[in-house]
Every structure is written in C-alpha cells, then in structure tokens.
Design a protein that fits this description.
Strand content: over 45%
Number of strands: 17
Distance between the termini: 39 Å
Shape: globular
Radius of gyration: 16 Å
Mean pLDDT: 89
Number of helices: 2
Largest sheet: 9 strands, antiparallel
Structural class: mainly beta
Length: 217
C-alpha cells in the first residue's frame, strides 16, 4: 500500500527552462517527411542547446558525453528542453540511474510549452512507469491513476531505452522495445522536446541520459 501511495499523482514544484522556438525551426518541422531525423544528440557538444542549471536544488548539465540530472530536494522535478516547436514526434533516449535511490522518476517530455504545460513519460528505477500531462499547472496521469509496475523496466543502475510517440491525440510509450502504455489527450498540440527527472521523498536522485533522437513519425 505504501508503494502505491507514493506512486500516486503528485503535486510538486517544477523547475524547468526553455528557449523560444524560432520560425525556421517550425518550418523545418512542417516540411519533413515520415522517418526524417529532426534532432540527434549524443551530448558530446556542450553547446548543442540544452538548458543547464546549478543551484541548491541540484544540477542538470552535460556530463561525460551525456546529460546528467541530480536532484537534491524532495518532490522536485527538473526539465531541460531544446529550442524548437514540434507537433508529431517519436523520441528515443537511453537513460540510467547512476546514483541515489531507486525511488525516483525520469524520462521524456514532449509538446512542452512552459513549466505549466507539457506531456511526460516516466519510469522509476524500481520498475514503475507513467504517462501524464501538466496543463495549467495541474499534473494528471493519463490512462492510469498512478505509476504502474512494468516488468520491461531494467531496475537499479541498469540502463533503459525509452521510446515515446506523440502523434495527434495519441501518446504511446515503449520501454526497452516493449509497449508499456497508450493514452489519448488533445490538450497540447505542439511544443519543445526534452528530458526530465525528479525525486519523491528521497533526495540525491542521479540520472544519466544519452543518445537522444527525435524522428518524424
């Protein structure tokens, strides 16, 4: 029961930063074809555009040819995005816990407008996943009442490959190549793409991301 309670819908503070998309970015997205790569980043270039942060809440930054998020406040989330305005996308990324508790959350965001409006796809290092949205500052899980257990998730420090599709009103989540969840929602049509990680009650959540790719579905 305690496990289910801590995985319930969370009302937390969000810390995020983003850049305003330029017109050329939007036009490029509009004229791409299915299967075209819109973004590919192995984080080897620290000038590729990801938002970084260092303060008392933790840090998010390029690290060892990857991107690292370390959260040191309970109930806190980090979100880092790239410039651009994307509608339908498929996002792939490799992610792993490199320190801190298994009681964590991390994953991908799409259609990010600001800290009050975006979709998220999360897993935890103890085997749970969730699809949800933040709209007008209110966090809601989609297709489920709380994060649910999924046997496809590699627990502990083992890396996981996450793939999400935001296509029309359909949001689909694959974990290590296996379908995990699907939801329908029409609140957000486009926005930035990015990464997220957060803490529940335990601080020191430490997540490493690599091989971020965005494809036109």
């Amino acid at each position: 029961m305690a496990m289910k309670i801590r995985k319930a819908i969370f009302a937390i503070l969000f810390l995020a930063a983003s850049s305003v998309a330029c017109q050329s970015n939007l036009l490029s997205n509009l004229f791409t074809r299915s299967g075209d790569v819109l973004v590919a980043d192995d984080f080897s270039n620290p000038g590729s555009g990801w938002v970084t942060l260092l303060d008392q809440s933790g840090f998010m930054d390029y690290y060892n040819s990857g991107f690292r998020m370390w959260i040191n406040i309970p109930g806190f989330n980090f979100v880092s995005t790239l410039p651009g305005d994307y509608g339908d996308v498929r996002i792939d990324v490799d992610a792993a816990r490199i320190g801190g508790p298994d009681n964590n959350r991390f994953g991908v965001v799409c259609r990010f407008k600001d800290v009050f409006n975006y979709y998220f796809f999360l897993i935890s290092s103890d085997g749970y996943f969730g699809i949800g949205k933040v709209v007008n500052g209110t966090t809601t899980h989609l297709g489920q009442d709380m994060m649910l257990y999924n046997p496809s998730i590699q627990k502990g420090i083992a890396p996981n490959h996450l793939q999400v599709e935001c296509q029309g009103t359909t949001l689909t989540f694959y974990i290590n190549g296996q379908p995990a969840g699907i939801a329908q929602d029409a609140d957000l049509a486009s926005g930035q793409v990015g990464l997220t990680a957060g803490a529940f009650n335990d601080t020191g959540v430490d997540i490493f991301f690599d091989n971020f790719v965005v494809i036109k579905p």
